[in-house]
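Issue 218. Parser rejects a valid record. Input:
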Amino acid sequence: MRGDTESGLSLVELIVTVAILSILASAAIPIMRFRVQREKERELRYDLWQMRDAIDKYKDAADLGQIPRRCRYAGLHEGGAHPGAGDHRSCASQHS
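Output the parser choked on:
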């Protein structure tokens, strides 16, 4: 037991305390990394679900004719050609 005049912690007590805290912290870090990874995966799964839902809705709308069809050569005008297009016909002549 210590004398009445001494107060505070000894160097050995501080080293032991720091060692215990570092062991606890090193155990907590992988748990937090795992938790962060799981949260990212959950967000990605939700984003993927939203994209699939949007694609399904777009396809359903296209199947019902609610989305107008576009010409393959959308930049083509009468008398001119779309750059890089192999066929120089107008959109109107393609569908008639």
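Fixed in the parser; the record now loads. Residues 92-96 have pLDDT under 50 and may be disordered.
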